[in-house]
Design brief:
12 strands; 535 residues; two-stranded antiparallel sheet; alpha/beta; AB_hydrolase_fold; 7-stranded mixed sheet; phospholipase activity; Fungal lipase-type domain-containing protein; Fungal_lipase-type; chloroplast
């Protein structure tokens, strides 16, 4: 007798239980599936209940209560069937956002089948790349960054910070290094967000949202252009920040969480610099002639060809002081010395990270730290889509310092990484621009979300860089199947370069690709303020 029959039988009927080990030869009877079996379909349970003789009301209530108690003991929730026949809906056809919630319906482990989830088996979904849609559940997660697990990197922090030139860590990409790169990339995204939210705000009133709460921003940084906008070029409706000479360009932050310091093996000082945002910054990018680091040009002096030289525009933004702010060079050096004195006796590191123009300025920062601070800690430069900055002598100067290691992350097809500034124009001299440091090469064509013919803006976009780093495993290898980074911001910034199937799927799941990009929705940020000067 089945358990279901036993618990639903009238209480007056005697129940005979045969001995457990007694041999009872008999023909195999037809057994109805037990309602206690969690794998039994709800429809089969309904058919079994319909074929059984209707018990009395009191006995049915008692049986249901008894089954519920058994379910609690077994730790398995009951299978609740759909009640109304007219409203019965196959759970396979039920909207994914209802079954798993919007967060699960939109997240990058949706492209590969995940345990406990079932992809829709329709033929219409099979043409999407990769193999299935299950990874989209994680790709478009709006409220959770789903960051990779943090492992202790204290024993190997020096190699992850560039000692040895990242040999053996780039191809295939080391998982700990990937996580560090994504964190520093998010720091730059925070700089972009802080600037565009209030471009004309002073440092004391600027809000900054950091993606890692273990870091605290300690000083705002400003870059000033030596150029000025001519009166004829100004338009009545042009925002003031587009033409002003001094603009907020980034910040300095330090790791203050003792737990994170122990995990990383040192206290890290991060110098974060955004890319080009104003008209005068664009104009400085176009000043691509090579000048000595001290700013004094040596035109006509053949001997000067061997001295370190950098792009005139980058050096101008780095060294020029504004009416109310110091130069970027002065601000950075003062803050680095202050933090080194504050944490004297501790193991320190300096990480200078930037995107585009910020990557070029990061090289100038690293060079000055190594040249002017004798006891400076190890310096690593993380460059996202950075242009060439100086000549071969400048490259040798950085390499011979013994303190600076440079990692350039380059997206194939990103034109900015191939030119001395923004314009591919070289001076008619013997000196030529050269790249510096190790290279991590990624490619938009490897992304399951981006179109293979993604345009130049997408190939240079920072969020596209971070998306590709999150999925990069090695040259010639497929996109990482367990990539966790949300692509909501990528979808909103690069909608025209995202595959149509993904845009349509996002709309179906309730994500508006036309909504303004909000970095705070795609990352778990904490709020903090930047003080200037630091206290």
């Amino acid at each position: 007798m089945t358990i279901a029959a036993a618990v639903t039988a009238p209480t007056t009927a005697p129940l005979h239980v045969a001995p457990r080990h007694a041999a009872q030869p008999r023909a195999a009877p037809r057994r109805d599936p037990s309602p206690l079996n969690p794998n039994a379909p709800a429809q089969q349970a309904l058919r079994t209940a319909a074929s059984a003789p209707p018990p009395s009301s009191s006995s049915s209530d008692s049986a249901r209560a008894h089954i519920a108690n058994l379910d609690k003991v077994l730790g398995k929730p009951p299978q609740v069937p759909r009640a109304a026949a007219n409203n019965t809906q196959d759970p396979e056809q039920e909207p994914l956002s209802v079954r798993h919630g919007l967060l699960n319906a939109l997240n990058l482990s949706f492209f590969v089948p995940m345990p406990g989830m079932r992809a829709r088996g329709t033929a219409a979904d099979e043409h999407m790349s990769p193999r299935s849609l299950m990874h989209m559940q994680q790709l478009l997660s709006a409220d959770s960054p789903r960051a990779s697990p943090r492992s202790t990197i204290a024993p190997r922090w020096r190699s992850l910070h560039g000692e040895g030139g990242w040999a053996g860590l780039l191809d295939p990409l080391d998982s700990d290094l990937r996580r560090e790169l994504l964190r520093y990339g998010d720091f730059v995204q925070a700089a972009y967000q802080a600037f565009h939210s209030l471009p004309t705000a002073s440092a004391r009133h600027r809000g900054l949202m950091l993606p890692d709460r273990s870091y605290r921003p300690t000083r705002s940084l400003f870059a000033t252009s030596a150029l000025s906008m001519p009166p004829w070029a100004k338009r009545p409706n042009t925002p003031e920040w587009l033409t002003q000479q001094s603009n907020w360009v980034g910040y300095v932050a330090v790791c203050e969480s003792e737990r994170e310091v122990a995990r990383m093996g040192r206290r890290d000082i991060a110098i974060v610099l955004r890319g080009t945002a104003t008209c005068l910054e664009w104009a400085e990018n176009l000043r691509a002639s090579l000048v000595p680091l001290d700013g004094e040009s040596s035109d006509g002096a053949e001997a000067g060809a061997e001295e370190p030289k950098v792009a005139r525009g980058f050096l101008s933004l780095y060294k020029t002081a504004g009416e109310k702010v110091k130069s970027l060079s002065e601000e950075v050096m003062e803050e680095v010395r202050r933090l080194m004195e504050k944490y004297k006796g501790e193991q320190l590191s300096i990480t200078v990270v930037g995107h585009s123009l910020g990557a070029a300025l990061a090289l100038l920062v690293a060079d000055e730290v190594a040249a002017t601070i004798p006891d400076a800690p190890p310096v690593a430069v993380v460059s996202f889509g950075g242009p060439k900055v100086g000549n071969a002598a400048f490259v040798d100067r950085l390499g011979s310092s013994g303190k600076v290691n440079v990692l350039r992350i380059v997206n194939a097809g990103d034109m900015v990484t191939k030119v001395p500034g923004v314009a591919p124009r070289l001076p008619h001299k013997k000196e030529q621009y050269q790249h510096v440091g190790a290279e991590l090469r990624i490619d938009s064509k490897n992304s399951p979300c981006l179109r293979p013919d993604a345009g130049p803006a997408c190939r240079h976009d920072l969020e596209a860089y971070l998306h590709l780093i999150d999925g990069f495993t090695g040259t010639g290898r497929p996109f990482r199947h367990d990539a966790r980074r949300s692509v909501i911001r990528l979808l909103q910034l690069q909608r025209g370069n995202v595959k149509k199937e993904y845009v349509n799927r996002a709309r179906e799941l309730g994500v508006d690709p036309t909504a303004p990009a909000d970095v705070g929705r795609s990352m778990a940020y904490g709020n903090c303020a930047v003080a200037s000067p630091s206290s």
